[in-house]
Amino acid sequence: MVSANREMAVYCFDTLVAHYNGEQPAPPAFEEGQHPLFVTWKKTTNGSEPRLRGCIGTLEARLIISGFREYALTSALRDRRFPPIQPKEIPYLECTVSVLTNYESALNHLDWEVGKHGLIIEFTDPDYNTRRSATYLPEVPAHEGWTKIETIDSLMRKAGYNGVINDSLRKKLRVTRYQSTLYTMHYTDYASHVKSIRGTAPTINGAPIINGFKTNSNH
After folding, report:
1. What residue spans of the chain are helical by DSSP H?
2. β strands within 106-218, DSSP E
3. How many angstroms separate the CA atoms of 2 and 4, rounded?
4. pLDDT tens-digit map of 168-187
5. For the chain, how many helices (H) and strands (E)?
6. Cα 1 to Cα 190: distance, rounded to the nearest angstrom
């Protein structure tokens, strides 16, 4: 089984940096495989709690090298909840790569464990007779401090349902649970890694100097 690892996070940073430099990313240093995957970007400033800046992936298995290359950019630039990440933000980013495994049909909306399982819910909107679906990665409910019911209700809102939520509707949900491995890397660790492996720290057009690693600046 493929597990999320440092090299996957490095490749996502390489891809984003190369995008802004108009270059191709360095070849990945991990083996090809086929898995569902997600890329999450968060931003840390002044020691504050990291804030989400983008999170997009696929629940369908796909080749992970092209998958991480695609979703590193899609999550950074085209998550509709956020403005695109700017080059000057890159030194403040942390990247989490997730590889999803162990898909199972849950018996009901409570048949899962907070902190262990990610969820996919599917249901018919009773007000519009349309199909709706949404997912949360395993770490989300635990990070938010949600109960199972709070998680399910939040997922229904995420899916676009604006009507009344009650236990009758919750019991009609089709719930798939899954697990994941993940790896998180901050830009400073990425820059140190690149410098040790390739001899020079990464440079980013438009980004400032940070933590001793000089980056190009277009002022």
Report:
1. 6-21, 64-77, 139-144, 148-158, 167-170, 187-198
2. 118-125, 130-136, 174-186
3. 7
4. 999 999 999 999 999 999 99
5. 6, 6
6. 25
Residue with structure tokens 């798939």?
176
- pLDDT 10s digits, 67-102: 999 999 999 999 999 999 999 999 999 999 999 999
Whether the CB-CB separation of 13 and 69 falls below 8 Å is answered with no
Residue 38: Cβ-neighbour burial (10 angstroms; 0-12, 13-18, 19+): buried
In angstroms, the CA 57 to CA 35 distance is 11
Euclidean distance between CA atoms 210 and 141, whole angstroms:
33
C-alpha neighbours within 13 Å on the C-beta side of residue 36: 16
Two structure tokens written together for 108: 């009901």
Using DSSP bridges, classify how beta strands 93-105 and 174-186 pair: parallel, antiparallel or unpaired: antiparallel
